[in-house]
Amino acid sequence: MALVTLCPGCGTTFRVNSAQLQACGGEVRCGHCQRIFNGFATLITVNESAIESPSPPQFQSQPISEVGTATENLAVITNSGGAMDLPVSPDWNQETTEASDNPFDDDKPAERSRGWGLANVLLLLLLIGQIAYAYRTELTIISPEIRPYLERYCAFIACTVPYPQDIQQLGIDSSDLQKNLTRQPEVTTMRAIISNHAHFPQAFPALQLLLLDVHDEIITSRIFTAQDYLLDQDKSLQFIESRREIEIRLDFDSSQLNALGYRLQLLYL
């Protein structure tokens, strides 16, 4: 690489070296337009291949230090004003200046590398988003504490995060079927306690009630949803919390049924 300084007045370019610029404090005079400028301020680097082979330097009778342009080494005179004169090379042409004026050619591979890096990051984020969407319920089973973050994500892409439905982790701890013969003999009341044994919240299951006759044969069967069996104070709930139990109640007309037994089952529809 070679050091080149550019005249801000006329755009003429001169080949210099740092020792010369330091000797005059960076102050130089353009040999073309006579403008004095700071050579450090417009200093750039160009590839050696963009500079033609230099011809032998020209010497003058005054003390000089040598610099060169793209086509030859030029004599530089240190004048009494402290600025270094930069004579114009007759062979310098604007096309060569424009070709060698881009100091960032070597940075293009780095820019491409940064572009690929950004693209890879975006693809990784897209993949994570797809996994979060496809396995959002399973992720809440593995780490229940991340549900709020998944719900925010789903709010952004217009989806929901269903609660897990592992029927094996639910159980009926107790149940009771009674009739109020004095007040409402045609109404039968079912009470039970459902427990969630999982370490994560679960959706409310459906409840299947089977009424049996004296031979333990099924007389009738009916399926109730959470809104059918939850107590009034629990109807706003959306799930059974981990390691918790909930009391349920069912009232139904059994006046036309001669049931002597029952069977209660939990299921997900």
Keyphrases for this structure?
269 residues, alpha+beta, 3-stranded antiparallel sheet, rod-shaped
Q: Any overview of this molecule?
A:
It contains six helices and 16 strands. It has a three-stranded antiparallel β-sheet with strand order 2-1-5, with no helix packed on it. 23% of the residues lie in helices and 33% in strands. The protein is of the alpha+beta class and 269 residues long. It folds into three domains: 2-103, no CATH class; 107-157, no CATH class; 167-267, abc- transporter (atp binding component) like domain (Coagulation Factor XIII, Chain A, domain 1), CATH 2.70.50.60. Mean pLDDT is 79; it is low at 53-81 and 90-100. It has helices at residues 18-23, 94-100, 108-134, 136-142, 147-157, 226-229, and strands at residues 2-6, 13-15, 27-30, 36-38, 43-46, 64-68, 73-77, 84-86, 170-180, 184-196, 202-203, 206-212, 218-224, 239-240, 245-253, 261-267.
Radius of gyration, Cα only, in angstroms? 44 Å
Q: Helix segment count? A: 6
How many structural units, i.e. domains? 3
Helix content: 10-25%
The order of strands across the largest sheet is: 2-1-5
The share of residues in extended strands comes to 25-35%
